[in-house]
Specification:
Length: about 210
Amino acid sequence: MDDMEPIDHILTTTRSVRRRLDLTRAVAPEVIEQCLEIAIQAPSGSDRQGWEFVVLTESEPKLAIAELYRRAFAAYIGAPPAPGTPISAVRASATLLAEQFHLVPAMVLFCYAGRVERQSAAAQAALYGSILPAAWSFMLALRARGIGSAWTTLHLVYEREAAAALGIPSDWTQAALIPLAYFTGTGFKPAPRAPARTKTSWNGWGRRRDTGEV
Ligand SMILES: Cc1cc2nc3c(=O)[nH]c(=O)nc-3n(C[C@H](O)[C@H](O)[C@H](O)COP(=O)(O)O)c2cc1C
């Protein structure tokens, strides 16, 4: 089976969708469940699968989390951008998402059992590395079904407040919040990126592969 082409297409065109979200179209719970069933094929440390996916579709919890997101976003957008952050259309589209956050048909909060405070680098990597692949797989599965989404973390400035609003136990970590909706228009393109070879070390830090290019 030659499935490289469609898979590469999905992998290279799954963008953060903020402007092209159809806020008027419902997303069936079954579709979200189907994408989560795909997401749980992702790896987790020791195959622990210590995840919990909190799906918000009702107005009240969506509004509560959107308010926290908006509060954090206001501080983020009002502050000078961190060095290395491209000043770009992302700011305008992120502002639109913040304004409309409560209007998305669904948002999914990816949580994992455990906390990383005062843990070793290895333990921190193990916890986040056990939930982030599932979240990305979820976004890819949505994309394949015509549903756009965006990786977000800003509400975590108020992680405790979000936990209280949703009843998340204090020994769980929230790792990513994914708002989603069917996207409008046709597909997406690969984004401009510095070529991977300019970021790839071979056999020692900073050693680029000699490709004969000048
Ligand atoms: C760890 C992480 C946190 C992010 N947090 C936010 C966020 O809170 N709000 C948002 O609008 N986008 C957020 N993004 C999306 C990035 O802005 C986006 O991935 C980047 O601009 C590249 O665009 P693309 O995803 O369309 O390729 C986040 C992405 C990552 C990986």
